[in-house]
Amino acid sequence: MPYIQPGLRVYAEYLSEITPVDYEVDSPTDGWRLADLDLDSRAASVVRITPAVLARAQERLDLLPLDVVEDLVDHGDNDMLVELALRYYAGCTLPQSTEAATRLLAHVNINLKSESFHPDLDVHVGAERLRARIAFGEYLSTTNVFALQDAGARADIAAAACKDEGDCPSQLRIAAALERHWQDGVFDMLGWLPPCENYDALWIAWREYCSARRRKLSLGVSAVECAAHGCEARICWGKPLARCGGWCPLELKPAYCSKECQRQDWKAAHKPECFASGQLAQPVSGSGSGCNTPLLAPL
User: Do 167 and 258 have their domain in common?
Assistant: First the structure.
């Protein structure tokens, strides 16, 4: 495993988290869909950093050396100002400093047109995404709900400006955290009604994600990861899976990354479930190990 500089990994993580993604992305380069992500995770990033993701981040760094970025910032380039803030926040090619990133973002001039400027809403989308991610990072480390509220406000602005471009994993994680606190009654205990109920664009994006997630999981309880004990293969890692082609109910139909994993799980756990209805939906194939397993079917 080659050594990867921590700053590059963090830069790639944040770059992936604040980049809009379609729900139906099925690219072998990215290897994951938005609906595959576990948004309740408290990890630094829910996006698996594959070699392809790291390569794209490194390509961006090579294309935009630090001296070039700083020169463009001096000439009033807002996009490069956000890029510089991201590098400070990630600690990539610069010392890590959330304070420096925040100061830079405060100087984004919305009156200057740039690639990420949204003229109708008078916002710089890239800056709002990064502000939301910084505030959410503070919430993750301190559980400060006021930081979460600030993250929600920023994410809602970005969602409203980019509703036709896909959603960012980070803004959906913010929505998940807001909903969790709302259901737990945290806001009621604080004695105030947060403005997050008015985050219309963010909640629309969240409902779309939940709908896509339910469709994904309707394929079966193990449609996202291999059901074999000890196997960690997941769809979001770019590993193709296939579900059991037997007679087991759809909601109990496991998925596997290989025939070997299916054979292992068949003997260890799944055989009684699959035979519960008295027959198999498809002809069986010999496993070569003294038992028959159903054919694998595509997800």
Answer: no
Over the stretch 173-205, which tens digit does the pLDDT of each residue have? 888 888 887 766 665 555 555 556 778 888 888
Q: Are residues 138 and 240 in the same domain?
A: no
Q: What is the pLDDT of residues 80-135, one digit of tens each?
A: 999 999 999 999 999 999 999 999 998 887 655 555 555 555 678 888 889 999 99
Q: Looking at the 3D structure of the chain, how many domains does it have?
A: 2
Domain presence at residue 224: no
Shared-domain flag, residues 151 and 180: yes
Residue 280's pLDDT is what?
43
Does residue 1 sit within a domain? Answer: no
CA distance 181 to 187: 7
The verdict on 172 and 74 lying in the same domain is yes
* Domain region containing 245: 235-298
- Relative to beta strand 242-244, strand 255-256 is antiparallel
Q: Is the pTM of this model over 0.90?
A: no
Domain termination residue (choose one: 217, 244, 265): 217
